[in-house]
Write a structure and sequence with these properties.
TIM Barrel, 12 helices, alpha/beta
Length: 298
């Protein structure tokens, strides 16, 4: 663990131009056109997408306004190009921690545009400081819109209770493990405990007949999900699998070949660096790969 942390710290000290070389397989690019081209290639393989303009925790409402306009531009482009993709939105990117009412109205404008195009918006979950605010934002928008969903994280100890409540409201989910660094008091640290909680939550979602995006690259969880789907005879209109762009393409292609719907999270934008650092913290093996590559070149 100490070595992993040191490797991530080392990579963060490298020039961004170097980090970008190694981060590029996991982001679609910097410009909107890069993201659109990536989605087109996925669609050709029968794979759908969710596009994400990278950026979060902006410092002022002007930045939030700009971010919201960029998301509207993405929705316009998806419609124009007739792509099989929705969008994911980080609430802090559109002002959640600065002005909740402002954030709500920006989300409403995004949902209005998506509804015009018969499209869908996923409200991303972020670190635990935002959980209650994001759930409240989702509930408010869900009262008016049926084209909105939320993300829940299996490593948080509170999530099962949140899901039981949200299920009564017909929630539409992405279920993931969670990647933010949280204290042991509120988050499971044991890998198998997170896995077990993931599957318990998924079963609760299936039992309550909610739609869920099963978001994981863990083959163990994918196999267990297959078993649960078969055991409970869950229709293919009740779930999909979801993965990050550039991660475990072998599993992605297998899920697709097995006839399950799969959606790839396609991140792009100028704020690629912070996203890439989070990916390194989640997967320090990548930091080790970068470090070895740097020293080989020397």
């Amino acid at each position: 663990m100490i070595l992993n942390n040191l490797l991530v710290t080392f990579v963060k000290l490298l020039p961004k131009s170097i980090v970008y070389i190694f981060a590029k397989p996991y982001i679609a690019g910097i410009k909107l056109e890069d993201g659109l081209d990536t989605v087109k290639e996925l669609n050709k393989k029968g794979i759908c997408a969710t596009m994400d303009v990278l950026g979060e925790s902006i410092s002022n409402l002007d930045e939030a306004e700009t971010a919201a306009n960029e998301i509207l531009e993405v929705l316009d482009a998806i419609e124009k190009e007739k792509l099989d993709s929705n969008v994911s939105v980080k609430p802090t990117q559109i002002g959640l921690m600065l002005d909740e009412e402002f954030c709500y109205h920006k989300m409403v404008s995004i949902l209005d545009r998506a509804k015009k195009y018969n499209n869908f918006v996923r409200i991303d979950m972020e670190d635990s400081a935002t959980t209650d605010k994001i759930i409240n934002l989702y509930r408010r928008t869900k009262e008016k819109y049926d084209n909105v969903g939320i993300v829940v994280q299996a490593y948080l100890k509170r999530t099962m209770e949140d899901v039981k409540k949200l299920n009564k409201e017909g929630a539409h989910y992405r279920l993931c493990k969670g990647i933010y660094i949280e204290p042991e008091k509120i988050a499971y640290k044991d890998r198998q405990k997170v896995r077990d909680n993931f599957m318990e939550i998924l079963e609760q979602m299936f039992d309550d007949e909610t739609y869920v995006g099963i978001a994981t690259h863990d083959k163990y969880l994918i196999d267990k999900s297959y078993e649960l789907i078969e055991k409970k005879k869950i229709g293919k209109d009740k779930y999909e699998f979801q993965m990050l762009y550039g991660v475990r393409t072998d599993l992605r292609d297998k899920i697709n070949a097995d006839g399950h719907k799969i959606r790839i999270y396609v991140p792009f934008g100028e704020h690629w660096y912070h996203y890439s650092v989070r990916r390194l913290q989640e997967n320090p093996v990548l930091a080790w790969y970068i470090t070895k590559s740097i020293f080989r070149k020397k």
